[in-house]
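Figure 6 in text form: structure in, sequence out.
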């Protein structure tokens, strides 16, 4: 399961990076068209807002969690005993699982509803946005599973999760 989650998390991170690059190219073309041809690319704001930004922000969440790179404040943690650190780790992972699990649950409800009604947005163009509604529940479900994996691996087996790219795909 660790390798499967690692590979899927990595793929989503690569997709997020590709979305960042596409967003950069899209906006650059839009600006160039606006100033050189006096005709901006219609739908840039909608595409950036509903696809590129959402994907770039949320798709890599599981990869960040898998690598243990989320922001953490260790002001008091460093002063805890080993047992206190373990309790804090368990508490943090359970809170993360609860938080992301709730977001995933609600996200799936919203994404399925959006799919069923064929949700669109009408701006400078009409754009189907229901596909982008699946970015959040996919990301939140995966980060919930990674949090569960982190809890099992680190707490019950005493094995830290990999923090480098090479370690991630070993085994």
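Output sequence:
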């Amino acid at each position: 399961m660790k390798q499967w989650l690692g590979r899927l998390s990595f793929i989503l991170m690569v997709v997020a990076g590709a979305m960042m690059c596409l967003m950069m190219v899209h906006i650059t073309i839009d600006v160039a068209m606006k100033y050189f041809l006096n005709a901006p690319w219609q739908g840039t704001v909608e595409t950036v807002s509903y696809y590129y930004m959402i994907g770039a922000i949320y798709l890599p969440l599981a990869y960040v969690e898998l690598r243990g790179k989320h922001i953490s404040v260790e002001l008091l943690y460093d002063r805890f005993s080993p047992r206190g650190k373990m309790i804090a780790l368990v508490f943090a992972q359970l809170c993360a699982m609860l938080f992301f699990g709730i977001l995933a649950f609600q996200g799936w409800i919203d994404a399925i509803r959006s799919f069923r009604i064929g949700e669109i947005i009408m701006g400078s163009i009409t754009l189907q946005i229901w596909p982008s509604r699946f970015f959040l529940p996919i990301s939140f479900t995966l980060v919930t599973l990674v949090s569960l994996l982190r809890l099992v691996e680190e707490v019950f087996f005493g094995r830290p999760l990999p923090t480098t790219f090479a370690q991630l795909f070993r085994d």
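Caption detail: Residues 162 and 168 are 5 Å apart (CA to CA).
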